[in-house]
Amino acid sequence: MARSALAPIIDDFDIYALSTRGSVDGAAFDCGESLRDLRVIDADSAAAGRFARGCRSRSLMLVGHVGTLDSVDDLEDFGRALGFESVRFLGWSYGATLGAAWAMTHPTSLRSVVLDAPSDPRSPWDVVLARKYGAASRAFARGTVSTSLDGPMTPREAALWRDYLLYEPEATDDVSTLTSLRLGETPDGKNDGGIETQIGVHCSDVTRAETRAAIEVPESDPRIGFGATFDRVCMELPPPPRPLSTIEVDGAATRLDVMVVSTSGDHVIPASVSQELAGDMLWRSVIVDADRHLSVGFDPVATKKAMAFLATGE
User: Fold this and answer.
1) Would you say domain 2-19+87-122+248-312 falls under CATH 3.40.50.1820?
2) Which of 36, 41, 109, 192 is most exposed, with the fewest beta carbons within 10 Å of its own?
3) Helix, strand, coil proportions of the chain in percent (round to 5)?
């Protein structure tokens, strides 16, 4: 997707991609091969503890140290190591939230920025989660997917199946297969590491007070996605030393050339969250009318606008 989206400007710039802390491309945040505990976490009170023990035993040195502010430091070090005074940045989803945090804290390191579906790094997690529940519920209600399930499924497995269909509404595989795909499980029963990375980052970003509040937020009916699964694991891990709530915004960030792209029917990051971030930071906002997560690289008009802005800031 990145190469396709960048095609209009790829010949004019050097393109770099940085794997964030805890990702499978580097020192991975590893919690073990089995994701069974995440499937039964709603019914088994010991599941979160078992999963967290796997994280501690395999990734003890990374626990609490793979958060967004840590990755912002890495981006700063990366740019300095390459000798760049300032760079252009394009981020999608969590990458957009990371980009927002970077722009807020080090605006002089950036020249122009495009953020596709960012969350606000300053927002309390339980507030964001409640809005995510609402967006996912509305998106699922608008869809045409079947709500029937074949075969025995736990409540969380059913929620993950519904979530996968919001990402891939044309998917026709059986429920069990789609649930496994959403979890990142490979056909041999192992996993691709993506969920562990997300858990590692999330638990490094949120305070334990935030996780407790998130667990109390009522889920949508029907349940969709992971809900507060990650937060239940976080409660079994040590408090992070640099939660995202400690972010300090540089006043110059409001003068940086930033375009925030949001999609009206986004079920992952509600468009209103991204739009409010743009408005509060005095950044440009582009809204795409579509039922999907992300627009740059998918919607031709939004992609063209984003690439022009990235190249010129206009």
Assistant:
1) yes
2) 192
3) 45, 10, 45
